[in-house]
Design goal:
about 475 residues; alpha/beta; 6-stranded antiparallel sheet; 5-stranded mixed beta barrel; 30 strands; about 35% strand; globular
Length: about 475
């Protein structure tokens, strides 16, 4: 299947898995099941049947995370398209299809969300082979998950006919329990997986016919995109002008060429902590625990954390611990985590967006202490990593090297510091930090001043295009 080109959609924010998943580092970049992140696992799943590296559509704020994880997974992406604003799946797939046909080719696009789990990869790849034949004949194929229960949290696809490729009769919204039971009993309904396969040209043809405003806006955003060796930055004004719509509503519900291939492969969209419990290895009492967990007389519980979690006499409870937040909830109410996130945002707090540890293209920093006029960070700079040339209006900084070598630009000076050496950056002085060594640089930064927010940064030069 050398004409299959994976399109991996990686623009989601994953708020239903807060506090582990946050806007700045959502669930597709987390190793929720196994050692690979969900983005990496998605690529590994399709690598054996892909003609070349994937086209990834990502939020521009996640560009360095996505690029680094794909590199770690051993692939060179065909392209990483950056969305300046979320516009749902129909526009995201449109710009990917335009990029896929840029060189005159017309590959089959295998469209995959980056945050799903598929346990039986052989069954998935077999279904793709079946769908490929239909797609080569001009069909727009979706994959319908064979339901294992009357789920009320999924949309459904009603099919007609029989066999490995069926006509789509209709797409239906999330049902109530009684309706879902009828759907499952009928044998004609499948869960809507959000995965698709079609010729790039066929999708663009149908989009232009059915949703000309989306097609025109996406084409303009793609044509006016800024390109460099790593990323394709879609034009912000043009992309924002596109209506926000899913591929289901925009195309699949309206086209006469929609088809569905049944798929029974242990699929899960990991839409909640309860869903993650379902796909995790459980003990004899239905408990699934990740990290240092001690439980006594617990049943059907899920715990995830890095510090010791002790649970006594609990049933149907989820406990998730991070450096700066703890979630405790009943399993049947964890969908309400999105309401918690909304309240956090309404209160002007940062925990909806940022972890205590924040990843940057040069490395990461961990805010380990803070007060009214001080903040302490543990900073790690990758070999060859370099921070922007910058200054601050409201704070001074002290840097103490813990390990590695630091090249420090401070005004007109350039200093080379090693373990146990330090320097002071006065307020208003232009400065820069670089790791010239082959080992990670670790240092402690102590900030002091009247305002310590991350927006007190004036960048003059930046290797990563943030100036």
């Amino acid at each position: 299947m050398t004409d299959v080109l994976p399109i991996i959609l990686s623009g989601g924010s994953g708020t239903r898995l807060w506090p582990l998943s946050r806007e700045a580092y959502p669930k597709q970049f987390l190793p929720l099941v196994g050692e690979l992140s969900m983005l990496q696992a998605t690529w590994k799943r399709v690598a054996p049947i892909a003609g070349k590296g994937p086209i990834v559509v990502a939020n521009q704020e996640h560009r360095f995370i996505a690029a680094e994880q794909l590199h770690e997974a051993g692939t060179v992406p065909t392209a990483i398209l950056l969305e300046p604003i979320g516009r749902n799946t129909a526009p995201a797939i449109a710009v990917a299809a335009l990029e896929a046909t840029r060189d005159g080719g017309d590959p089959l696009l295998l469209v995959l969300p980056s945050d799903h789990i598929i346990q039986d990869e052989a069954a998935f790849q077999a279904a793709v082979a079946v769908a490929s034949e239909a797609a080569r004949g001009g069909r727009l194929v979706t994959f319908g998950i064979t339901p294992t229960a009357p789920e009320t949290g999924y949309g459904y696809i009603k099919s007609s006919g029989a066999g490995p490729v069926r006509d789509v009769d209709s797409f239906v919204e999330k049902p109530d329990l009684a309706t879902a039971q009828q759907y499952v009993a009928s044998g004609a309904y499948f869960w809507n997986s959000g995965m698709f396969l079609f010729r790039a040209s066929r999708y663009l043809q149908e989009l232009e016919r059915l949703q000309p405003q989306i097609a025109a806006a996406c084409r303009l955003a793609w044509e006016k995109a800024k390109r460099d060796s790593d990323f394709i930055r879609l034009d912000g004004d043009a992309f924002a002008a596109s209506p926000s719509d899913s591929i289901d509503y925009a195309v699949m519900e309206k086209t006469a060429d929609a088809a569905v291939v049944p798929l029974d492969a242990g699929w899960n969209d990991v839409g909640s902590w309860s869903a993650l419990l379902q796909v995790s290895q459980q003990d004899a009492n239905g408990n699934a625990h990740h990290g240092d967990v001690i439980e006594i007389d617990c049943k059907n519980t899920y715990a995830y954390g890095s510090r010791l979690i002790a649970m006594v006499g609990l049933e149907d409870v989820v406990v998730v611990e991070t450096d700066d937040a703890v979630l405790v909830g009943k399993r049947d109410r964890v969908q309400e985590v999105k309401d918690v996130v909304a309240r956090i945002k309404a209160g002007g707090r940062s925990e909806a967006t940022w972890h205590r540890k924040v990843y940057r293209p040069w490395g990461a920093y961990d805010s380990i202490d803070n007060g009214q006029r001080h903040q302490v960070k543990r900073i790690t700079v990758k070999p060859g990593g370099v921070l922007s040339l910058q200054m601050h209006h409201h704070r001074a900084e002290h840097w103490i090297v813990v390990s590695g070598t630091a090249e420090v630009t401070r005004g007109d000076e350039v200093l080379l510091l090693t373990e146990n050496q330090s320097t002071y950056i006065p307020l208003g002085v232009t400065h820069r930090l670089r790791n010239p060594g082959k080992l990670p640089l670790e240092l402690i930064e102590v900030q002091s001043g009247s305002y310590l927010g991350e927006d007190d940064i004036v960048r003059f030069e930046d290797t990563y295009g943030r100036a």
